[in-house]
Design a protein that fits this description.
30% helix, single chain, six-stranded antiparallel sheet, 15 strands, seven-stranded antiparallel sheet, globular, 2 domains, alpha+beta
Length: 404
């Protein structure tokens, strides 16, 4: 029966950027459609980069299945190698995700439905849903968000506060629609299993930054290349080597996540980028100045690693900056401040002195390097566009830290 174990994939509610659908495989693992170039990167990952990337956990087969309401769901069939902690067989019948689909994307194929204002009410949530992980996540805050905040519309009045980020749901719905129109239910798709880098945070605040001055991969068509070049020229990618691709920040005063999408990020001026970085560190009550030093230290450590990676070009990859929106008591107690100061000035065991913040590189579908199986063009030296972006990011954070 081991081979028959079916794992129902839930949407990953903390996806703030990108266009590929990320799915939740289990509490500590996410998965995404496999791209051979990304697999090649993870399989030959330089040791020094491991602390800055999600842990690679293998490959899993996924197929589309209609639930008993006719809605498409994704089912993973783990092999023995990928099975993590022997999960129990999941029933697909009346599961929480079925209810989720019923409320969410049953009617998402019509063109006008993108404009629909979707509101959750507690009555729509059955007990099974409330007991699921996803249900618990949603019930932490007011259950509402607006799908219209995802439309690329210059005149739109974007709702400022969402209970959690709707971007991942938007990607997921689009992905399911694409899959169900293109493939039949029996087709197996390969997905990549990766560490869920936000699983240890109660209220993960995430900033997704597109790094570098160039976004198109070597494999891009002329049309795609021109499109990406234009996006870079018209955004902070050209001037700073970095642009906002998505963000969620927990607002302690309202109990909501404040969310921004890639369309917002593309329109920012360098000054607007600086303000957004400040906003990312603002919890609705005050600026989290305690996070600036650990983030800067982590970015400097990444910078020194990237400088040593000859031939690597991280085109279109993202950098995540993560912290917990729930402040821990020890940050405010004077005694613990003293201990904290002491700890900061003595060598900390690996990983502990950065535990409040995290910096991770993700999305390597267009990453190229010497020796890559999918490689056509080879480059010498490190990725200067990426380095330029990191240096500017560090400079801006240092200015915020100095109160400039």
């Amino acid at each position: 029966s081991e081979s028959r174990t079916a794992i129902l994939l839930e949407p990953f509610v903390h996806q703030v950027g990108g266009h590929m659908s990320m799915m939740k495989y289990d509490e500590h693992t996410v998965c995404k459609p496999l791209v051979s170039q990304e697999l090649s990167f993870y399989e030959s990952l330089p040791l020094a980069m491991r602390q800055f990337t999600p842990q690679y956990k293998g490959v899993v087969s996924v197929h589309l299945k209609k639930d008993n309401l006719g809605n498409p769901t994704l089912i993973a069939s783990p092999s023995l190698q990928t099975e993590s902690c022997g999960r129990l067989e999941n029933a697909i019948g009346d599961s929480s995700v079925t209810i989720w689909h019923k409320c969410k994307w049953a009617a998402s194929t019509g063109t006008g439905s993108e404009h629909a204002l979707v509101k959750w009410s507690h009555t729509q949530l059955t007990k099974t849903f409330k007991d699921s992980c996803l249900g618990k996540m949603l019930l932490r805050t007011d259950l509402q968000y607006h799908t219209d905040s995802l439309l690329e519309d210059a005149n739109r009045n974007q709702p400022e506060r969402n209970s959690y980020n709707p971007w991942g749901l938007h990607c997921h719905r689009q992905h399911l629609n694409r899959m169900s129109s293109k493939h039949n239910e029996n087709k197996l798709h390969q997905f990549l299993l990766l560490e869920n880098v936000v699983s240890k945070y109660s209220y993960p605040c995430i900033l997704d930054l597109k790094m570098g001055t160039r976004q198109h991969g070597d494999d891009a068509s002329e049309e795609k290349k021109a499109r990406h070049i234009k996006k870079c020229e018209q955004s902070t990618s050209a001037s700073l080597g970095v642009r906002v691709c998505g963000m969620q920040v927990y607002q302690a005063d309202t109990g909501h996540f404040l969310c921004k999408d890639k369309y917002y990020g593309r329109k920012l001026s360098p000054e607007g980028f600086r303000q957004t970085l400040r906003q990312f560190l603002c919890n609705g009550n005050h600026l989290r100045t305690d996070l600036l030093e650990p983030i800067i230290l982590r970015l400097k450590a990444l910078l020194s690693v990237i400088r040593k990676q000859s031939s690597y070009r991280f085109y279109s990859s993202s950098l995540l900056i993560i912290y917990d929106g729930q402040e821990h008591k020890e940050n405010t107690a004077p005694l613990d401040n003293h201990l904290h100061f002491h700890k900061a000035n003595s060598p900390a065991p690996h990983g502990t002195h950065h535990s409040r913040v995290d910096v991770r590189m993700i999305d390597f579908a267009h990453t190229t390097f010497k020796g890559s199986k999918c490689n056509h063009t080879t480059y010498d030296g490190p990725d200067h566009g990426y380095i330029f972006g990191l240096e500017n990011l560090i400079k801006i954070l240092q200015n915020i830290s100095e109160g400039k």
